[in-house]
Amino acid sequence: MSASTTPPIPGEPRKESLIEYPCDFPVKVMGARVDGFAETMAQIAQQFDPNFNPATIEMRPSKAGNYLSVTLTVRATSREQLDNLYRALTGHPMVKVAL
After folding, report:
1. Domain residue limits, the chain
2. Is 16 helix (H, G, I), strand (E, B) or coil?
3. Among 53, 55, 63, 65, which is most buried by a count of CB atoms within 10 Å?
4. 15-29: per-residue pLDDT in tens?
């Protein structure tokens, strides 16, 4: 059973999220290793966290060098913000996976 389908325990307040906001939240994004991938992901992150610093991006190429993984650490202020960020990332044609 996932946390969203677990019935509440009588006498305990229901917690909507395990994340306490605001917080720094890492998002790993993977895509083909092409020019502009990291910069494009940074632009998307800045839409949801105006103070996002592209200099903080961590990059790691795949073993064969065909793919690139970037970690974007954003300042998360709400679940809605994170959900919208994930939707924007996964909907982008350069992105294969966002975790």
Report:
1. 23-98
2. coil
3. 53
4. 567 899 999 999 999
